[in-house]
Amino acid sequence: MILPGQNPPPADHDILLTPEQTKATIEALAVQLCRGLSDPHKRVVVGIRRGGALVARLLRDQLAQCHGIELPLGFLDITFYRDDLDTIGPNPVVGATDMSMDLDDKRIILVDDVLFTGRTIRAALNALFDYGRPERVDLVVLVDRGFRQLPIQPDFVGMTVATGPREFIKLHPQQDEGYPMVVRRLI
C-alpha cells in the first residue's frame, strides 16, 4: 500500500530475474548439470508445459555446447494428471505433449520454471511414467519458492526465493530482442 506523500515503487519492483540474469541462471544450471552428466547418450530433457518447456529448450541448448551433442527434448502437458482438475474450470487449457523418444532406462532431466507445492512435479512424474520407465529422473527448476505440500525436492535450482503463500512467481516470455524471458514476483 502506498501512503499519501510516498512515491510508488519503480515499475520493475517485481522483477526477480531480468532477461540477462535469467540467461546467466540457465547457463549456471547447465554448468552444474554438465559436471554430473555421465553418458549423455542416455539423457533426455523433458520440459513441463508451459514455463518449464521454454526453460528446457534453453537448457538443452546450453547442454549441447557443453557436450557437443544435442540431447533429445520432450514436452509434457500434465493437465489431466493434476489433482485439482475439478477446480480449474470446465475447459482447461491443454498443451501439446511431445514424448516421441524412448524413455526406458534413460536418465531424464525434468525441467520446470517454478517449484511451489510439489503437486505439479507429482503430476509430471505420473505422466512421465505413462511414456516409459526411466532409470533416473533429475528435477531442475529455475526458481524454488518453497511451501512444499509433498516431499519433492529439486536436484538443481537456479534461484531460491522466499515468498508468502499468496504470492506468485511467474515466468514471462519476452517478445522483444534479447533473452526470451523475465521472472516476476506477483503479489
Written description of the protein model:
- By secondary structure, the chain is an alpha/beta fold.
- The chain has a single domain (16-86, 93-186), classed as 3-Layer(aba) Sandwich (Rossmann fold).
- It has helices at 19-36, 51-67, 119-129, and strands spanning 15-17, 43-48, 73-76, 107-115, 136-144, 156-160, 168-173, 181-186.
- Strands 3-2-4-5-6 form a five-stranded parallel sheet, with helices on both faces.
- Helix 1 (19-36) packs across helix 2.
- It is globular and about 40 Å long.
- The model is unreliable at 1-12 (pLDDT under 50).
What is this structure, in a nutshell?
The chain has 187 residues and is of the alpha/beta class. It is 25% helix and 26% strand. The strands form 2 sheets. The protein has a 5-stranded parallel β-sheet with strand order 3-2-4-5-6, sandwiched between helices.
